[in-house]
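help with this:

***
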Amino acid sequence: MSENKKNTPLSILLWMLQGMIIGIGAILPGVSGGTLCYAFGMYDYIIEVLSNPIKGIKKHWFMLIFFVLGGGLGFIGFSGLTAALLEWNEPVVLCVFVGLIIGTLPELWRDSGERGRSRGSIISLVISFVAIAALFYLCENAWSITIPENTLGFAICGVIWGLSFIVPGFSSSTLLLFFGIYEAMSKGISNLDFSVVIPLGISMLVILLAFSRVMKLVFEKFHSIASHCIFGFVLATTLMILTKDCIIQSLSVPNVLIYLVCIICGGAVGFFFTVLCDKLKAKAEGNDNQQSK
């Protein structure tokens, strides 16, 4: 989407569909809103608007209206379904989410090495994986840390949500699921519970405005190291979800087979989705190049 791209009905529909897919992806554990924004070619626009709101909104206001509208519909509409599925059978749903993460790994690995892989990049991946896995283990077993279901807790949710939109590969839902507040947050969003939505929305907006410019500079100057750190984080969160008590305690021969099928199916969907995003991004870039000639 370039500056001279006409605001046709097809463009408006595309912006809304992109927003809806990103909104749905953001609520799904294992899927990063920032990654989807990047895949759809929206990441630079969003960072530009957040880094300089006055100039960015003036430049992209028409596109943002429909993109944000679509994102809100996808985010709010899908949150209730996700909460209901977790109530129905948490281990099965978690295994599907693990599959979704695994399906996106090839694309994340390719993106992380887009500007080369140095020894420092690999070291950053290993350190990130070990540090996050150890932190999660201590939080769940030694410290028993959970996020409370109150105003402060939902404000923390907003902080984590904000980070997921400016750090591609960072899945906020995965982290919130691990800390035990995901289901309560999803229900609150789907029911438009203001005690959930207001603290979450305010803290998310603060994080987006405060850190978008910082992340832009980090990825411009240290793209390979930062991307590999995120890849290590994704691997660690995947492992910790797969070893949650509800899955481990329910293991049996029939359940193992069911969980494997769920992981494989989720992986296929995740991989297909990243391929689709790649094709859409390539098509959009091709259209922009033709218009610029």
Summary: Confidence is low (pLDDT under 50) at residues 1-5. The chain has one domain: 9-292.
